Amino acid sequence: MMIGLLFLAVALFGLIINFVRHMLPDRFNRLVFVLSLALVVLVGAKIFSPISLRWLNLFVILAGAYSFEVTGAILVATYAIFALWLPPNPIHGFLVWASFYVVIAFVFGFSVRWLFRLRERHLRWMERLLLQSKNLQILRDISIALQSTLELDRLIHIILTAITAGYGLGFNRAFLFIASDTRLSVSGLFGIGPMNVQEGHMIWQDVVSSHMRLPDFIELQNQARLQNHELNALLQSMTFSLNDKSTVFYHSLMIERPIIIRDIDPHDPIQRQLAAAFSMQEFAVVPLLNRSKIVGILVIDNLVNKKPITDESLESIMPIVTQAALAIENARVFNQTELIAQTDGLTGLYNQRYFQTMFFNLLDEAKEASQALSLIIADVDFFKIYNDTNGHAAGNEVLQKVAFILRSVIADQGIVCRFGGEEFVILMYGVTKEIAFQYAQQVRIAVASAKFEREESQPDEHLTMSLGVATFPHDGQHTDELFRAADHALYRAKFLGRNRAVVFQGGD
């Protein structure tokens, strides 16, 4: 009875110890497990049958191997041999059992080590496969998003969002420097991320708690809810030459590979400026190239979580970087082509095609928002006489100078277009007839005051302009009605002697 209670007490002690050990650090947890098992086996063998100790020790050796691999197995085997020797007389066949324990210890120890290495390798492969699957999903999402637009601003939003989103490729910040037309310098265009660590924690906590997917986060960025205006204002003030061979930008473009900066080089002006402006300590520079043509530079870092940037993490973004470079270059070519299609080649103003498109669009907006839309039609007086007298080259110079005056006077208050020949049109959204007339007068005075080559050949001995003004909704509800009203006012200005601005009157 006493023996049974004693063994029960030892077993209970072992259970308590095994419960408590889970609260300890891993290494102590395993050590307590092996020691408690050895104690239970030893006490049990002493109480019941010393012979059973021979076989029960195998479980202790296995526990040692499982917990500490070969080292643990050898140490426990040493203990087991010592335990066999403890009785007054060593167990019969002591040397055989001792040798057996040593062999079993090595077998168990190396087998467990092999199994653990196999499991670790399997887990690494699983982790890598999951990461690749995640990256492929991101690449799919961003490919679809990139194909949805040719607008450069939106493309950059999509690219930087994919690189920085918390569920995405995991970098805390990304900055894009775009190459100039000459490819001799890069200028800061747009960045996503916090200015400091505190702001970064707030942003990414919001992202994670919202469980956003890439398309959701892109839309959120487009709504400017996570944009940092201070960061972008600072970034857009930066321009770096690509001719300085001492800079990290130059080296990255030359080798056409990313470069990881772990310590700021005080001799590199770009590294110094980035570190001072954005608190950068470690960052990566990634060149954006399209068939070896410089598109821009991507700078990424982990300001918030301080996660080291590795070659493997950079490799994960290279497919997106390649797509990004192609998409940005295509967008720039498209925008340049579109600008050429919308621009008058002689004056640099928008052409008649662009005017027609904007006229329809702005009139629709004015109707929906109950806003005014003023139209000014301007014509150079007696231009045919000047052209015939002085030649087309001189006439072209006059048109170029008049276009410059129109741009200078109207500035950002309206859209100036060349309608054809010597005729120009100006669209002024949200501008009343009275204000539009004032601008028309300023244009007229500026042209009359300007000096033109051989203008003395003109009937009034200097070049002048006549202008007609009409405004929605009073002078027309449709584009053709409003255009006829402004054209009628222009005709009236010429009829009254030219060199004047006239406002359309309903009774004219």
Q: How would the blueprint of this fold be written?
A:
Elements: H1 2-21, H2 26-47, H3 52-85, H4 94-147, H5 152-164, E1 173-179, E2 185-192, H6 197-210, H7 214-222, H8 229-235, E3 239-241, H9 248-255, E4 259-261, H10 269-278, E5 283-290, E6 293-301, H11 311-342, H12 352-369, E7 373-380, H13 383-390, H14 392-410, E8 415-420, E9 423-429, H15 433-449, E10 465-472, H16 479-495, E11 501-503
Parallel strand pairs: 10-11
Antiparallel strand pairs: 1-2, 1-6, 2-3, 4-5, 5-6, 7-9, 7-10, 8-9
Gist of the model:
The protein is of the alpha+beta class and 508 residues long.
Structure description:
This protein has 508 residues and is of the alpha+beta class. The chain has three domains: 2-118, no CATH class; 151-338, GAF domain (Beta-Lactamase), CATH 3.30.450; 352-503, Reverse transcriptase/Diguanylate cyclase domain (Alpha-Beta Plaits). It contains 16 helices and eleven strands. The chain has helices spanning 2-21, 26-47, 52-85, 94-147, 152-164, 197-210, 214-222, 229-235, 248-255, 269-278, 311-342, 352-369, 383-390, 392-410, 433-449, 479-495; strands at residues 173-179, 185-192, 239-241, 259-261, 283-290, 293-301, 373-380, 415-420, 423-429, 465-472, 501-503. It has a six-stranded antiparallel sheet. A hairpin with a 2-residue loop joins strand 5 (283-290) and strand 6 (293-301). Helix 4 runs antiparallel to helix 5 (152-164), helix 5 packs antiparallel against helix 11 and helix 13 crosses helix 14. The longest helix has 54 residues, at 94-147. The N and C termini lie far apart (126 Å). 34% of the residues are buried. The mean pLDDT is 82.
